[in-house]
Amino acid sequence: MPICAPSIPDAAIAPLILAFALLAPGFGQAREPQPGEEVSSAMERLRGAKASGTSTTHAGPSAIPSPSPALKRRAFEAMGKRKTDPRMEVQARTAQAQAAKALGDEQQAMNARLHQALGLAPPDGAPTPMPASGNVPAKAWVPLLFASSSMPIETLRSYAGQLERVGGVIAFRGVPGGLNRIGPMAELTARMLRVDPGCEGPACTMRNVQVVIDPILFRQHGIARVPAFAMVPGDPTQPYCEREDESAPRAAHLVLGDAALSGLLDEYGRLGGKEEVRDVSARLAGR
């Protein structure tokens, strides 16, 4: 005889199913991970990878080894046994000579461009101006005027015109503004030597007068005031850096004060230098 039990009626189960669905809405569905859980998981994976990884070590010495005395000796012996190729020596000397020549040519070109820019030389391709007329014979005694950039430009121009006739030299103690600034001195020289004071540019005719910057000449003659005039034996235009010492011949007398060149020569002769000024006075007078 079959055995059976009465089943629960559907009307009684329905409220239970509905209550369970309300209390567990995610039942039967996959739960999405929260943002905090994702970060924690990533950190755990990073720690695991770091713990399981092996540290990389670099093979090789950590410092330069110090050679032993025997190794040093062998190295010096090998250097001493090195054979010298004569052709290499010739090539090296030729290259050195060519480099020195190229450097000298470049310095000359730069000096030429500097003189052109300052108006002390004509531009490239321009006809060379004829220098002012002057009679400069061979000389044993050179008229030397000690001057300064503080002197009026008209006074300097007047002395330049007179000294040109007798082959004289104008000397300055130094450069205005220091040796690092040659521009002001070059401009002063150009203004002093231009035949036409109103001329501008590199094509102006310049007086044939030597201008030197020589503190040794000032110290040798004890110059404390300018203008000063002297008759110097030898060539005062030789660069002082090329002289062996300061024992070069110097003037026997010194005339101080601003005066015409003829008056300076007369006073120099009166002090005992008649023999030194004889030829210069004759050239100045046109005799």
Structure, described:
It contains 8 helices and 5 strands, in the order ααααβαβαβαββα. The longest helix is centred in the middle third of the chain and has 32 residues. It starts with 9 loop residues before the first helix and ends with a helix. A 5-stranded mixed beta sheet has the order 3-2-1-4-5, with helices on both faces. The radius of gyration is 49 Å and the shape is elongated. With 287 residues, it is an alpha/beta fold. It has a domain of 145 residues: Glutaredoxin. Strand 1, helix 5 and strand 2 form a beta-alpha-beta unit. Helix 5 packs across helix 6 and helix 5 runs parallel beside helix 8.
Short description:
This protein is an alpha/beta fold and 287 residues long.
How are the SSEs placed, and which strands pair?
Blueprint lengths: L9 H14 L11 H18 L16 H12 L5 H32 L23 E7 L5 H14 L2 E4 L10 H11 L16 E4 L1 H7 L6 E6 L21 E2 L4 H25 L2
Parallel strand pairs: 1-2, 2-3
Antiparallel strand pairs: 1-4, 4-5
Helix pairs in contact: 5-6, 5-8
